[in-house]
Write a structure and sequence with these properties.
Layout lengths: L1 E9 L6 H6 L5 E8 L6 H13 L4 E6 L5 H10 L7 E6 L2 E3 L1 H10 L7 E12 L2 E2 L8 E8 L3 E3 L8 E3 L3 E11 L5 H25 L11 H16 L7 H13 L6 H29 L12
Parallel strand pairs: 1-2, 1-4, 2-3, 6-11
Antiparallel strand pairs: 4-8, 5-11, 6-7, 6-8, 9-10
Length: about 300
């Protein structure tokens, strides 16, 4: 068992949470669930999992905290839940570890040198049960494991990343997977919610003249994130509204070979690269026409 605490935010995650926890195969000492008052069976599942984990020397602690935004909720979980393990980890409830990554964490994490404070993981996304390999979606490099107290979630409305306060990072070879089992209605509802966050983030970026320097550490994962932000803020958003969604879909689906991901890929790339980006533009247009400001978002009403 690794001296590791895994922090997971939940809101109505009864369909995903068990497979997330079980994917660790008993290597994590503690799980911390920070729930924003779920109305399904999430709490019941947490209680069951805690009893199961105790048999093997682990534990799962369930907390509830009012949602403000993702970064605030995650940082609350990292600082207010008495984490005493050497390492902490951020996970989403719809994510899982591949067996190879479990072995890599179990073998390598305890032996990492003291100058390394963070571990970058590779994430692959599944949609309707299919791995989305193309369209520029893989691999996504994310700082997910870090020495306790050495990283926080940057305070952004959208596309927030973990940042180290000090130290170096190392990249593990194997993948974690994003494999949400909820249906397409939930997925589109979630992206409609995301679109408000995206517009709010853009409005705040313009108002405060935020720059990419908000990412403090310079690991491979945040260099990737910085590159994406430069492309979005300095390139994509300078193209004409609506037209840019069309161009982005062509880039993802044809130039970056998204069509190789089959029917599931066609649905994913169209909805995520065209419909979603077009919806963001439509809301931006509405805000500009009506001099409207997007309000801070509550948690997702799943």
């Amino acid at each position: 068992m690794v001296d590791l605490t895994v922090v997971i935010l939940t809101k109505n995650e009864e369909k995903n949470l068990r497979k997330c926890i079980e994917s660790f195969r008993g290597i994590a000492k503690r799980f911390v669930i920070v729930d924003s008052f779920s109305t399904d069976g999430t709490e019941k599942i947490c209680n069951e999992l805690n009893q199961e984990l105790k048999k093997f020397g682990g534990s799962l602690d369930f907390y509830q905290n009012k949602w403000v935004d993702y970064a605030t909720q995650l940082n609350w979980g990292l600082t207010k839940t008495n984490i005493t393990t050497q390492w902490s980890m951020r996970m989403d409830a719809d994510e899982e570890l591949l067996e190879e990554l479990v072995s890599e964490i179990n073998q390598n994490l305890p032996t990492i040198s003291k100058d390394i404070n963070g571990v970058i993981l590779r994430r692959r996304v599944y949609f309707m049960g299919r791995w989305i390999k193309h369209g520029g979606r893989y691999p996504e490099l994310l700082l997910r494991i870090f020495r306790t107290g050495k990283a926080m979630c940057e305070q952004k409305v959208m596309d927030e990343h973990m940042i180290l306060s000090e130290g170096k990072t190392v990249e593990f070879k194997n993948d974690l997977i994003d494999n949400n089992t909820k249906d397409l209605e939930w997925w589109t509802h979630k992206h409609n919610w995301y679109s408000d966050r995206e517009v709010l983030d853009h409005q705040m970026t313009i108002k405060k003249a935020l720059t990419n320097a908000s990412l403090l550490e310079n690991s491979k994962s945040t260099r990737q994130a910085k590159g994406k932000r430069i492309v979005k803020n300095k390139g994509y958003y300078r193209l004409p509204k609506f037209f840019r969604a069309h161009i982005y879909f062509i880039y993802r689906y044809y130039i970056r070979l998204g069509f190789l991901d089959g029917p599931e890929g066609k649905i994913f790339h169209f909805l995520q690269a065209y419909w979603y980006r077009f919806l963001v533009d439509a809301k931006m247009y509405e805000c500009e026409k009506l001099d409207k400001k997007i309000k801070p978002q509550e948690d997702l009403k799943a």
